[in-house]
Amino acid sequence: MTENKIIIQLIWGIALVFAGIGVFYRIPQIMPRIETIPYFAPGSYFIRFCFYVMGILLTGGGIKKILNNLRKIRKSA
User: What is the radius of gyration, based on Cα positions, of the chain?
Assistant: First the structure.
């Protein structure tokens, strides 16, 4: 991989981590609004669980991408 692709992938990993943190930040703010919709009210615990899993996957994937690309940078230097 060229140096530019590694840097772009590193930036993408950082963006994924921030997106995951943003999901964790927004869940407590948005869930009361979702629970007011009668169609979604019975499944509110499942929806909350799915949001947390999505946040974990985004954060974990971003961290993995950052670490892998940092190793590639160190290996090429």
Answer: 17
